[in-house]
Amino acid sequence: MANRWRQYSYQAQKSHLRRMRIILAWVFGFFVVHTIISGLFISNRVVENNTMNPGILEGDRFICTSFALQHMFRDRNEGHLPFRRGQVVLVNRAAGSVRPLVKTVFDWLVRFFTLQRISLFPPEDTVFVKRVIGLPGDTVTVTNFVVRVKPADGNYNMTEFELAERDYVPELPQVSLQWDESIPFSGSMDSIVLKAEECFVLSDDRSISNDSRTWGAVAADSITGRVWFRYWPFTRLGQL
């Protein structure tokens, strides 16, 4: 009888509603803080394909830093960029496009409660993991899947490896003599000069991966973060 009284009493119901409001307030507060931190500072990301093979594999988990604040306050006339050649970065090809506000908010919620596994936007609007090869003003040439870059302030062409701050080994496919250089993912490309605020990004797997060979140059603002530290699997723990 006493338990039934507690269940239906006004005070018991009021106390229950108060607890529910507190729980919802904590969940909402955590969601807001998580969204701000992941958007402006650091985030967690799971690699969902092997386009960065062999250095980064499907299922690898990383802590990524955000370039949002740096892009917001950097002087575009001076050309200062928060990333350098050779770094592995996040490329958001939908950056700068106008998305429906309501759908965007619901997408944040869905990704929050599914640990970033599900999004309301199609795959082509998601974030890609790529490597920065060329910066604004660089001249970029691809020959047999290896890139040569003449920096905007340089006089000589150098390989992508000479300009990178860390060593890496891309996956270069072995192609037959009948390989058609005009098809996508070609191993060779005529020289292009990157315009202001344009960058050239590539996958480490140079065989069948979409990147600047198929997209063209990407806007500097679309490079939204850096893949910084791998925390899973433990056998390959470390900074990129």
Describe this structure in words.
The chain is an alpha+beta fold and 240 residues long. It has one domain: Ribbon (Umud Fragment, subunit A), CATH 2.10.109. Helices cover 27% and strands 25% of the residues. The chain is built from 6 helices and 12 strands. The protein has helices at residues 2-8, 10-40, 68-73, 101-113, 160-163, 212-215; strands at 42-46, 61-66, 88-92, 127-134, 139-143, 146-150, 158-159, 189-193, 198-202, 218-219, 223-232, 238-239. Strands 1, 2, 3, 4, 9, 10, 11 and 12 form an 8-stranded antiparallel β-sheet that branches. The protein has a 4-stranded antiparallel β-sheet with strand order 7-6-5-8. A hairpin with a 2-residue loop joins strand 5 and strand 6 (146-150). It is elongated and about 80 Å long. The model has no long low-confidence stretch (mean pLDDT 83).
Q: Mind telling me the CATH superfamily name?
A: Umud Fragment, subunit A
Output the structural class. alpha+beta
Low-confidence stretches: none
Count of domains: 1
